[in-house]
């Protein structure tokens, strides 16, 4: 079942939660609604579910208008952020609730309901907890029960509001994998809300980035990360290093820092965005850039070494005037960077924003330079 | 080691002198103002022995007063139960203009003098009132008769159920009910299987408190009842009549029945609070265990 | 891709507002609104209009004459003064009880906590005869007090006693939760800086407590203004000395002077309603300030 969101607006008093949002959510895919708090993602999810009504616009499931259909009749599964398990019912009773609530004609006989409940308990790997009450479960267990409850009536659409928001890191990772498997097995159209970019990128087939009631960008996770459409998406999806300056005759410069921008015709103000992995560190300026930075901190984070550097003789825009560069352990062992050392950043791929709202131009140096770059350091 | 707790939390008023002084003072105040008066009711009722107590209880006017009082409560409590539940559902499950005003309006019976409450009904439904006058033309008399007593009792006790439910339902939120709707349950099913079990104890206490106040209302009822012995005399009015007749033991006998209901009410309240505290404790210890 | 989609949809108004749009998700809005409004109009608002009509039928001179009758004015003074004294007494006694119940452990604590609500559950007439009996000249309390030269029964002091009894729970029950919520860290911080207990109470605890205390005292005062059942048994009801305003209304009613009763009732009703709304507004403002911080 596809979900079509067309021109949805919603206002709470003076606050414009959603402003003319349109979206297509493909059938059988796991889609993430990603955004900071207040971006309207939860409101959009609740409007799709029918828990909230929009001021304007239309919601359609597989082309059929459901805008005025009551949530009860939309046949969706919904997982609430805080689970909303019925606290005085056992786990089994919780899961059976939707089946027992079916109109008499559609309601399966008791034995069938019981069978379905034990299937679901099997699936969430909690058959031994059937007679427990929600208060006696851990967060991760509650979340699984909430999921089982929501899919008991075999909905075509599964909506999840911050499904892992209240769980600790380890449980979160396990549940994520589990949800992914579940989705691959059953192929409902799933849509989940999250503010965690890592979760969105890791779990989903498609990410919808939202900000201030607008959709910023929709794309597959890998594409989204590699080619953000806007400064907002760039900033929101992880660490970014910025050089803000003026382009003149193919060179972007600020203070004593400069970068050649081959293939760019624009003259005037511009910002170059670089991901930590799109930058190398060298001990001397290269022909393509002069970006002197002094090392502030070196930290080993799992499989990667993170180097934090402060611009020397120029200023970075954004977070604390710090650049972040990721290097491999091999490079780390070779270079032995220490706090206080002076290094020069050498960009590999960059994204140049000119003017407001425009998409960035991708800047590549490798083809532009005749001589292959000097990979030798030290 | 044994005073580890006090050394962990050094709080104001922890010194033994202050502690025992204040505790002693509080126990004295509570005993003198609350416990002794409660005991005196039963003491006075038994002042002339068990035989007199039985005689007083079986007096025909007393029996009639008991019957009327129970009858009034039996009508009042269900009415206010429905109203209180509906109002609590309305103001805790929906947002709409005028919601806060409704919550304030419901407190009016708390603030109004019971005599004024009785007067309000007398003016409207009495023989000279604009509804009462019309009704009198159709040979219907509400005031100085049991319907009037029921009406003012409903007025005086209408906030209690709602007042017990509103804070609890506000705190519980409506996510569980929303989950019920998403799962396709009908309105009645949601209320019966999701909401009701969650508010059961507060509802019970609200009902018991409503009952206690309905049984014991004096000021408002005395305005509209006409105090006709054996006809419109409720138990509290009967207490007053006996007291003014200098039948002190008789007055305290009837009073002890009412005091018994009050003690029962307090016991129910204690039980409900104990249950809530127990659930809370269990949740907390389980959270710690995890 | 979505930005293009959004742009194309923007100028169109294909889906105008439909009346059904503001439907509510949870069931029972109409039903509960219907029951609540019916009840509030019939039980609360309609009777109030009856009083308004009765009073507006009087001329202003008549009205003024009735409500400024010397005996009635004396009853205002007695009622107001007694209610004020009773609520101030409750402010102190209630704070003491709340403090002891929250801070200390002692045998009988549960019993005392339970019995605090007795005045709410006990019929006022019963309270009245018990207090009258206890404080009578030959009663358990009265005989000792009369030796000290204090007469309670059949004096304004008796009114204060009755009012204090019936409204004691208000202060305890509003102060208690606030005391429970106080963070021990605040006190510890102050104590660790060398402040004395008295200073910490004045500077740290009392400032957090007084809004609840004031609310409790105001509720106690409002309730006392209207108290009738408990008062009339102990007050002696002597004109100009120990008659409360509620009783004045009652007396006018027994004289079948409905107009005069209504006029006096409108005065005390107005005062009660103003008190009620003032407390509600003040509480809302106070809560906003505390939670907004």
Q: How many distinct domains of chain A?
A: 2
* Total E-strand runs of chain A: 22
CATH fold title of chain C: MetI-like fold
Structural class of chain C: mainly alpha
The H-level CATH homologous superfamily of the largest domain in chain A, spelled out, is P-loop containing nucleotide triphosphate hydrolases
Shape type of chain C: globular
Order of helices and strands of chain C: HHHHHHHHHHHHHH
> What's the arrangement of strands in the largest beta sheet of chain A?
16-13-12-11-14-21-22
- Report the average pLDDT across residues of chain C: 86
Uncertain parts of chain A: 370-378
Named at the architecture level, the CATH assignment of the largest domain in chain A is 3-Layer(aba) Sandwich
Number of domains of chain C: 1
Q: Percent of residues of chain C in beta strands? A: under 5%
* Range of strand content of chain A: 25-35%
Which regions of chain C contain 5 or more consecutive residues with pLDDT less than 50?
Answer: 1-22
Annotated CATH architecture of chain C: Orthogonal Bundle
Shape of chain A: elongated
What average pLDDT do the residues of chain A reach?
87
How does this structure look, described?
The complex is a heterotrimer of chains A (378), B (290) and C (293). Chain A is built from 9 helices and 22 strands. Chain A has a 7-stranded antiparallel sheet with strand order 16-13-12-11-14-21-22, with no helix packed on it. A 6-stranded mixed sheet of chain A has the order 6-7-8-3-9-10, with helices on both faces. Chain A has a 5-stranded antiparallel sheet with strand order 15-20-17-18-19. The longest helix of chain A has 18 residues, at 169-186. Chain A has 2 domains: 3-227, P-loop containing nucleotide triphosphate hydrolases (Rossmann fold, 3-Layer(aba) Sandwich); 239-364, Nucleic acid-binding proteins (OB fold (Dihydrolipoamide Acetyltransferase, E2P), Beta Barrel). Helices cover 24% and strands 34% of the residues of chain A. The model of chain B is unreliable at 1-7 (pLDDT under 50). Chain B has helices spanning 4-8, 16-45, 49-58, 60-93, 99-105, 108-111, 114-125, 130-137, 146-157, 159-172, 175-182, 187-216, 219-225, 235-244, 248-289. The longest helix of chain B is centred in the last third of the chain and has 42 residues, at 248-289. Chain C is mainly alpha-helical. The two termini of chain C are 43 Å apart. Classes of the chains: A alpha+beta (378), B mainly alpha (290), C mainly alpha (293). Chains in contact: A-B, A-C, B-C. Chains B and C meet through helix 2, helix 4, helix 5, helix 6 and helix 7 of B and helix 2, helix 4, helix 5, helix 6 and helix 7 of C.
């Amino acid at each position: 079942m596809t979900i079509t969101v067309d021109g949805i607006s919603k206002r709470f008093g003076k606050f414009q939660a959603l402003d003319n949002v349109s979206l297509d959510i493909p059938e059988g895919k796991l889609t993430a609604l990603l955004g900071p708090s207040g971006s309207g993602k939860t409101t959009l999810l609740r409007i799709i579910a029918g828990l909230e009504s929009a001021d304007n616009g239309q919601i359609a499931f597989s082309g059929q208008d459901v805008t005025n259909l009551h949530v009860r009749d939309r046949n969706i599964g919904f997982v609430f952020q805080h689970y909303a398990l019925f606290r005085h019912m056992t786990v089994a009773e919780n899961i059976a609730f939707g089946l027992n609530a079916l109109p008499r004609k559609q309601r399966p006989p008791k034995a069938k309901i019981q069978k379905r409940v034990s299937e679901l308990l099997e699936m969430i790997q909690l058959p031994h907890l059937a007679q427990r009450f929600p208060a006696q479960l851990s967060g991760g267990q509650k979340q699984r029960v909430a999921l089982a409850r929501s899919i008991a009536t075999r909905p075509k659409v599964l909506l999840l509001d911050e499904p892992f928001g209240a769980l600790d890191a380890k449980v979160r990772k396990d549940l994520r994998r589990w949800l992914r498997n579940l989705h691959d097995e059953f192929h409902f159209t799933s849509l989940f809300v999250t503010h965690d970019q890592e979760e969105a990128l890791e779990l989903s087939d498609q990410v919808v980035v939202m900000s201030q009631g607008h959709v910023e960008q929709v794309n597959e996770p890998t594409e989204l990360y590699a080619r953000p459409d806007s400064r907002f998406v760039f900033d929101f999806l992880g660490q970014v290093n910025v050089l803000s300056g003026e382009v003149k005759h193919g060179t972007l410069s600020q203070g004593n820092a400069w970068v050649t921008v081959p293939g760019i015709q624009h003259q005037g103000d511009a910002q170059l965005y670089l991901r930590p992995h799109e930058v190398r560190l060298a001990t001397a300026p290269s022909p393509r850039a002069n970006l002197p930075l002094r090392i502030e901190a070196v930290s080993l984070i799992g499989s990667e070494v993170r180097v934090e550097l402060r611009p020397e003789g120029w200023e970075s825009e954004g977070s604390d005037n710090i650049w972040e560069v990721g290097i491999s352990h091999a490079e780390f062992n070779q270079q032995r960077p220490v706090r206080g050392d002076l290094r020069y950043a050498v960009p590999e791929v960059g994204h140049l924003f000119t003017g407001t709202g425009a998409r960035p131009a991708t800047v590549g140096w490798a083809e532009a330079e005749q001589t292959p770059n000097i990979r030798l350091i030290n | 080691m044994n005073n580890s707790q006090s050394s962990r939390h050094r709080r104001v008023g922890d010194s033994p002198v202050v502690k025992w002084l204040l505790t002693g003072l509080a126990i004295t105040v509570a005993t003198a103002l609350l416990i002794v008066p409660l005991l005196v009711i039963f003491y006075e009722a038994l002042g002339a022995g068990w035989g007199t107590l039985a005689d007083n209880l079986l007096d025909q006017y007393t029996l009639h007063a008991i019957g009327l009082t129970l009858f009034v409560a039996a009508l009042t409590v269900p009415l206010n139960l429905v109203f209180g539940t509906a109002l609590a559902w309305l103001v805790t499950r929906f947002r709409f203009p005028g919601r806060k005003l409704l919550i304030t309006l419901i407190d009016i019976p708390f603030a109004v003098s019971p005599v004024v409450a009785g007067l309000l009904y007398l003016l409207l439904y009495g023989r000279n009132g604009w509804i009462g006058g019309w009704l009198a033309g159709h040979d219907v008399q509400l005031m100085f008769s049991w319907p009037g007593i029921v009406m003012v009792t409903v007025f005086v006790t209408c906030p209690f159920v709602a007042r017990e439910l509103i804070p609890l339902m506000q705190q519980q939120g409506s996510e569980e009910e929303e989950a019920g709707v998403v799962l396709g349950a009908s309105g009645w099913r949601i209320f019966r299987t999701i909401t009701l079990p969650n508010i059961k104890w507060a509802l019970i206490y609200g009902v018991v408190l409503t009952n206690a106040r309905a049984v014991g209302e004096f000021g408002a009822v005395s305005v509209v009842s006409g105090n006709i012995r054996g006809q419109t005399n409720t138990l509290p009015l009967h207490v007053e009549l006996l007291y003014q007749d200098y039948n002190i033991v008789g007055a305290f006998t009837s009073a002890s029945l009412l005091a018994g209901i009050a003690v029962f009410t307090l016991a129910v309240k204690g039980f409900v609070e104990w249950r809530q505290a127990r659930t809370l404790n269990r949740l907390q210890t389980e959270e710690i265990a995890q | 891709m979505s930005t293009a989609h959004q742009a194309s949809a923007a100028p169109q108004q294909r889906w105008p507002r439909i009346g059904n749009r503001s439907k509510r998700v949870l069931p029972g809005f109409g039903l509960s609104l219907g029951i609540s409004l019916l009840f509030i109009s019939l039980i609360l608002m309609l009777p109030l209009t009856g009083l308004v009509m009765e009073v507006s039928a009087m001329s202003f001179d008549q009205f003024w004459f009735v409500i400024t009758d010397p005996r009635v004015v004396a009853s205002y003074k007695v009622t107001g003064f007694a209610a004020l004294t009773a609520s101030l007494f409750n402010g102190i006694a209630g704070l003491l009880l709340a403090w002891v119940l929250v801070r200390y452990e002692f045998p009988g604590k549960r019993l005392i906590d339970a019995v605090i609500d007795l005045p709410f559950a006990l019929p006022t007439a019963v309270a009245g005869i018990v207090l009258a009996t206890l404080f009578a000249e030959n009663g358990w309390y009265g005989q000792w007090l009369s030796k000290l030269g204090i007469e309670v029964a059949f004096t304004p002091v008796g009114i204060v006693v009755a009012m204090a009894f019936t409204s004691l729970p208000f202060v305890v029950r509003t102060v208690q939760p606030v005391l429970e919520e106080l963070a021990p860290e605040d006190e510890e911080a102050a104590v660790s800086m060398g402040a004395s207990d008295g200073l910490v109470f004045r500077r740290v605890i009392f400032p957090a407590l007084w809004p609840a205390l004031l609310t409790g005292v105001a509720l106690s005062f409002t309730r006392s203004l209207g108290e009738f059942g408990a008062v009339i048994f102990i007050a002696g009801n002597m004109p100009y000395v120990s008659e409360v305003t509620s009783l004045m209304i009652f007396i006018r009613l027994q004289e079948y002077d409905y107009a005069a009763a209504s006029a006096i009732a409108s005065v005390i009703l107005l005062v009660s309603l103003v008190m009620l709304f003032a407390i509600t507004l003040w509480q809302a403002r106070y809560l906003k300030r505390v939670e907004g911080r």
